[in-house]
Amino acid sequence: MKLVTLCNSGACCPVVKIKDHQVEIGEEGNLCVLTTEQWETLRAKILQGEA
Predict the structure, then answer these.
(1) Helix, strand, or coil here: 49?
(2) pLDDT tens per residue across span 1-51
(3) CB 37 within 8 A of CB 31
(4) Beta-strand relationship, 22-27 and 30-35
(5) Which of 2, 3, 42, 49 is most buried (CB neighbours < 10 A)?
């Protein structure tokens, strides 16, 4: 699993948890769970400037 914090302080911000078969974005009570395929689609769209 890879963990990416979305701010510099690291304690109070949402995180991205990249696991083998899913990606979790957010924090407890406000969580989005994507399949690996959905994550790759989102990532590609962001990198292409679409999202």
Answers:
(1) coil
(2) 999 988 877 667 889 999 999 999 998 899 999 999 999 999 999 999 997
(3) no
(4) antiparallel
(5) 42
DSSP string of 13-48, one letter each residue: S-EEEE-SSEEEEEETTEEEEEEHHHHHHHHHHHHT
Q: How far apart are CA 16 and CA 27, in angstroms?
A: 9
pLDDT for 11? 67
Whether residue 12 contacts residue 2, with contact meaning beta carbons closer than 8 Å, is answered with no
Round to whole Å and give the CA distance between 6 and 15.
6
Q: Please tell me the distance from the alpha carbon of residue 32 to that of residue 15, in angstroms, as a whole number.
A: 11
